[in-house]
């Protein structure tokens, strides 16, 4: 049985699948050639990340395809319910990348707090001739300790992020679909595990004015509307810093630019964009935005876990 990992898969995943008798192909196939290739090569499984889409036309045109796997959390590039109605198994790997995405969000908070994302660009160009003016430009940094972090979406990634934030002395507010008490473990080297209990809230608008930092950890709503728009920006603190490591579009990009221009938002960090893989130039060039190219899960450890988790699910499906 042949599996096409069209957006790649870790060596650990390949090894596990090959030991179970599968053939794994990682050569990328262009989207418009995918249906013909799947049928010609008789692939029974298709693994994707965010680059490849799996829509109704492909599902209908590939009768031998039995398994669709998404390496990562969001499955908005797959017509999941339709595929399942047609009898296909559709799986993702929600737990595998939580740690890595949380660490990127944490790193983003540090870089926004001290404007290092901008100084790293400016120093090579102007540090020799404008050292004093750059020092003045970056003289209004803030500390994370004692600040309030609002985590919008308190699932696996949100809870992993809360553990880091609590560890550096931040206050954490979690927003979720229902109010609940969630135990968040904090690992302390030489001490062991300390547990903090976070009581989540469903009232986003009541939580927004309390936040010094905000992270987005939610999928884009089914209706396509943004979670954060001009209405939400209005009730935030002046000088808030906001991070999106979730999905492009959960923050309205036009409204974000206006909030940055007015000073309502001091700085933002975007790992995801509405128009991937060709994000807006005005976002990429804005000196108040730290941009990364959707690398939340791009660590060796996360990719290894994603590969082996997908392999386990494929083996369970076919064996």
From TrEMBL:
InterPro entries documented for this protein: D-iso_2-hydroxyacid_DH_PdxB, D-isomer_2_OHA_DH_cat_dom, D-isomer_DH_CS, D-isomer_DH_NAD-bd, NAD(P)-bd_dom_sf
Keyword Transcription: no
CDD domains linked to this entry: PGDH_2
Keyword rRNA-binding: no
Record key words, sorted: NAD, Oxidoreductase
Occurrences of domain D-isomer specific 2-hydroxyacid dehydrogenase NAD-binding (ranges): 107-296
Family matches, as SUPFAM superfamilies: Formate/glycerate dehydrogenase catalytic domain-like (SSF52283), NAD(P)-binding Rossmann-fold domains (SSF51735)
Example of a GO MF term: NAD binding
D-isomer specific 2-hydroxyacid dehydrogenase catalytic domain segment(s): 7-318
Pfam family, one: 2-Hacid_dh_C
Family named by the database record: Belongs to the D-isomer specific 2-hydroxyacid dehydrogenase family.
Name of the protein this chain belongs to: 3-phosphoglycerate dehydrogenase
């Amino acid at each position: 049985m042949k599996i096409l990992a069209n957006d790649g898969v870790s060596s650990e995943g390949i090894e596990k699948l090959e030991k179970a008798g599968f053939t794994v192909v990682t050569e990328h196939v262009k989207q418009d050639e995918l249906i013909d290739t799947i049928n010609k090569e008789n692939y029974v499984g298709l693994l994707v990340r965010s680059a490849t889409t799996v829509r109704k036309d492909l599902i209908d045109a590939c009768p031998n395809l039995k398994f669709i796997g998404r390496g990562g959390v969001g499955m908005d590039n797959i017509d999941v319910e339709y595929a399942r109605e047609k009898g296909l198994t559709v799986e993702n790997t929600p737990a595998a990348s939580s740690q890595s995405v949380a660490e990127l969000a944490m790193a983003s908070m540090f870089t926004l707090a001290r404007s290092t994302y901008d100084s790293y660009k400016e120093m090579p160009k102007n540090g020799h001739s404008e050292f004093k003016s750059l020092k003045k430009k970056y003289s209004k940094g803030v500390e994370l300790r004692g600040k309030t972090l609002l985590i919008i979406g308190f699932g696996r990634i949100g809870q992993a992020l809360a553990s880091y934030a609590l560890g550096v002395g931040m206050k954490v507010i979690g927003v979720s679909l229902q109010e609940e008490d969630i135990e968040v473990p904090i690992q302390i080297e030489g001490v062991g595990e300390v547990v903090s209990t976070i009581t989540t809230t469903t009232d986003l608008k009541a939580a927004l004015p309390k936040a010094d930092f905000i992270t987005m950890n939610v999928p884009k709503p089914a209706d396509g509307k943004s979670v954060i728009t001009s209405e939400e920006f209005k009730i935030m603190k002046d000088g808030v810093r906001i991070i999106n490591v979730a999905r492009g579009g959960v923050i309205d990009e036009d409204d974000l630019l206006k909030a940055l221009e007015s000073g309502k938002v001091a700085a933002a960090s975007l790992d995801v964009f509405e128009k991937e893989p060709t994000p807006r130039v005005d976002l990429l060039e804005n000196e108040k935005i730290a941009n990364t190219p959707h690398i939340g899960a791009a660590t060796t450890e996360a990719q290894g876990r994603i590969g082996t988790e997908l392999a386990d699910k494929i083996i369970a499906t076919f064996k």
